[in-house]
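Why do we bother with holo predictions? Because pocket geometry can differ from the apo form. Keep that in mind while you read this record for S-adenosylmethionine.
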Amino acid sequence: MNANGFPHDDPQGPLFVTEHIPLEISEEEFDQIRRTLQDMRGFNLDAYKDKCVRRRIAIRIRATHCESAREYCHLLTSQAAEVDLLLKVLTIHVSQFFRNFSTFEKLRLEILPYLFTVARQEKLSGLKFWSLGCAGGEEPYSLALLLADHFSRDLERIPVTIEGTDVDASILDAARLGQYSQERMVELPPHYLQRYFTESNGQFTLIPSIRDMVHFRHGNIFHGDIYQRCDLVLCRNVLIYFAREQQENVIRNIARVLNPWGIMVLGKSETLLGESRSLFQTVCPVERIYRVTEPGRSAPAGGVIRDDSH
Ligand SMILES: C[S@@+](CC[C@H](N)C(=O)[O-])C[C@H]1O[C@@H](n2cnc3c(N)ncnc32)[C@H](O)[C@@H]1O
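The structure, written out:
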């Protein structure tokens, strides 16, 4: 143990250690970890896939060089910093600008023109886009870049609010800075880099006019109060971590707050499950794009988007 009570020289230990050592976590230990996260951070582990959670706890056990799950439970209950590090590993933050570029092309060519058409026909005062599970901001900022680059004339008449929400408050602080390393840019078309970022010491910072287009809000996907009325929701690569029932709950909540013409985009390995399938019609199965269905109300005539699902 070091002076801080960590069984490791580094007070926090590296976040990830990749070596593979089989590790037993008993039900009792698992329950203690679950209660600690709930009591100290209000974080409900039950929503997450059991296997996935155990694998990630094991990662932290190894990273802190604890010799058993029991020793790790002791560390977790005595060191608040370790609670935050475990949460970081549980809520993995991998993201990129224009992640799955073809999805953003579909947004640029079909979905955003459709939403602006609806906004004009319905005489809306504005549109609201929401990135749910936005990590370091790459996803909502990608929407802002698309709008600035291709829809500036539409924006003059129809303002768009973009919001990013994540359960991890510290990642949102980083997102607000809008500063990124090159590895986050691999799918970003080069002209965006030249036009909308400044570079210093290998770090790329978004210009203020793009940063100002996105508002970040801390919130948990399982708390009903984070859901607010909107026209486009990107909920990509978040559901995969949750148990099936929780995935369906999230999708139901999204359907509830989308306007009747509203669009939802899931990650490439995510799909609609069970009863939630009846809440949406597929717009593009490849890009996992869906339009909410509302009995008795169809999309305005000029705003119909193609259904690629057949
Ligand atoms: C893999 S990232 C996906 C980022 C982005 N949507 C993308 O596709 O590139 C998953 C994000 O979901 C967030 N997340 C995990 N559990 C959450 C919860 N219960 N409520 C809100 N966000 C959550 C994580 O903190 C993480 O930033």
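The longest strand covers residues 258-266.
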